[in-house]
Amino acid sequence: MLLEMKEITKTFPGVVALDKVSFNLKENEIHALVGENGAGKSTLIKILGGIYKPDSGEIFLNGKKVEFNSPLDAKRHGIAIIHQELMLAENLSIAENIFLGKEFGSPLNLNFHKMVEESKKYLQMLGFEIDPQTKVSKLNVSEKQLVEIAKAISSNAKIIVMDEPTATISEHETQILFEIMKELKEKGISIIFITHKLGEVYQIADRVTVLRDGKLIGTKNIEEISSEELVKMMVGREIKEMFPKYNKVQDEIILEVEDFEVIGYVAPVSFNVKKGEIFGITGLVGCGKSELALGLYGVYRTKFKKFIIDKQPLLELKSPQQALKAGIVLVPEDRKSQGLVLLLDVVQNITLPNCDIFAPSLNIKWKKATETTKKQIKDYNIKVSGEHQKVKNLSGGNQQKVVLAKFLLKKPKVAILVEPTRGIDVGAKIEVYKLINNLANSGIGVILVTSEIPEITGLCDRVMVMHRGKMIEILEKGEITPERILKAGTGLVENV
Amino acid sequence: MKSLNKILTGIIGIIFSLLVGALLIKIQGNSPINAYKALYDYGLGSWFSITSTLNNSTPLILTGIAAAIAFSSNVNNLGQPGQLIIGALSAALLGYYLPFPGWFGIITILILSGIIGGLYASIAGILKKLYKMDEMLTTLMLNFIADYLTLYLATYPFLDKKSYVPATKMIKKEYFLPSFKYLNSSFFIAIFVVLISYFVVKYFKKGYEWRMMGHNPDFSRIGGCDNEQNLMWVMFYTGFLSGLAGALLILGGTQHRFIKGIGANYGWDGVMLSIVGANGILETSFFSLFFGFLKSGGVGMEFEASIPSEFIMVLQATIVLLVVSTRSVFSYYGDKIKAYSKTQKVVKAHE
Staple B133 to which of A11, A215, A434, B127, CB 3.0 to 4.6 Å? Predict the structure, then answer.
């Protein structure tokens, strides 16, 4: 056994994050660690990485008891962690990043030449053809991950931990990453792989460990467990329908755009959305789908021939105010930076886009805002201790519900949801899916911008697939299959 | 509760700085007890001292809340000194040339000077809107322009020929703001403006949008606020406050004319005060009173204990540093203690 963690317990203010959790890792193994948000995955990893100290429990490495007092300690023992938020110095080159902290040469006279040469060696191992002197800021997320991996190999890591590496990269890039992971495994490196996506577990892992609410539920060989059983282990309840779908598409068109161009990002596209429809927009990272969404909301500069919303033509779209006024709302991709003020309470967060409701004249009627917030909390099933709880202290799923509640209070005609389920757990995801259905059934045209193919196949009535800032095709109901989407999304289908 | 917290940590920081100050006085060979007694006597000891403290704090209150509102809206307006001095010069000129009768003239002067200060601040807002120039730099540079422009105007076109230093002519007697038992009525105007500003920021739609912009500009933009327009409004409003401070210096002070150096350090003190008051309007006003006390008490220290008046500036700087550090130490350990007691409860419930 390469690594054994025995009966690890760790408490934080208000929660027992880990309750006597045991975990082990064999040599040459890819071991998936799964569980809903707040299950204790990250805590376990941070203990392994020397960031937290466990309250009780022991760690054995190659049968020897070890104690990590700092991240450096863990590194010295051959454990490398690739965090979800990549820890790279953006303004340094790839080579400088790889050898940060273990540079060649003397402090006053660094041997850059040797670093570049060595970096080339590691990058070639990963099949990553790039000049190591390129600045990291020029790379995309998946390329940055490769740099992190190269960094880990260069420090002779025996164990590499990857915390949700596939959350921010596209399906195609995920496949490349998996190839690399398999190669690493053959070279004798063991990998702990944290993910929210069950399909990936079956594709790559040898064994899987499930955590729930800080407790160990079980460790299984991947052949021994079906996906239904795995989901059951994760959420502790049956989920008959991962993707509930009961929206009814009406004939009436609610949004129609012709030659809509987001200047500098997206070439002209034309499409329409019907009342009650869930219209998907998808594509790889960098295909322009988020930019298109922000363009429709007036954040970017746009040009269009026709923009008709609920039979009313829109003459210009220059700011989010105009979009809101026309009846378009956007639930942004990054809820923490664009959707919420984490330090303030739910009421203050919900009030902002709804000033016209709460502040008909100069001043804001806080009493009314509080009452409405209470109602929204109930309607959207947001789990809070009260409407004045700080948003910071809510779970990801509940934060997302606050964002949804905030924008949907406006009674929009078109709702654009950008990656609404990113980083939230399975239970909350299903709630969001139901919400999307309900939205559509209330006569709203829903535009769902997502990179998760199961969401597209499970929820959407029609889907637009994009590639490099261009619309490739719009798939109708019967045509939506993962293969078709991937083919179009990687640019293999010619423009129709 | 929160604002009490800010004030308490502020007071603890001040006590520490007074101790440090005592040490510095001791090192220079003076008696700290005598020095602080003089500080007290001249700052709070008698009715006259109290009024002089309040009079001294009047401009500080206004520049302080100007800085606090700007910073809490994520608008880096560092132009308080320039806006104040522009407002002061405007008041001096209006006070000399305006043909209106008494109280009507006073109100006109105050409002017009405020507006001129606000427009001066808006220059930075326009530069930001049109050319994306960082308002921190532009407001800072506009201070120099204001400084030399007013000096030029007071030295050449509007110079009072009888004066030995660059100064404008004295304003009309009927525009002097009256004093009640030494307390100048400009203090009440400042308090009135504080209350209005508090109300604007807390209950007005615009004020709420400003605050949200301060917390997270992306959030407010996606939420449908016009950040550029809000920045202009914040610039204008805070510039108005600084300009008003300048006008009150002319109408309510002792000189009743624009003299070189009349702006003193009021603008920069306002920036410091907003730091000490953690950008809260009421908190900043409270500490403005304290800085006013230091200013009037500092005179006493110079007279009675022959400690140079520059010492007060040293003390002010120490206060800023110590208040900020006390505050972060408190919030750090406060969070720790809270977390610990919560854990204890959970552990107990577990058992």
Answer: B127
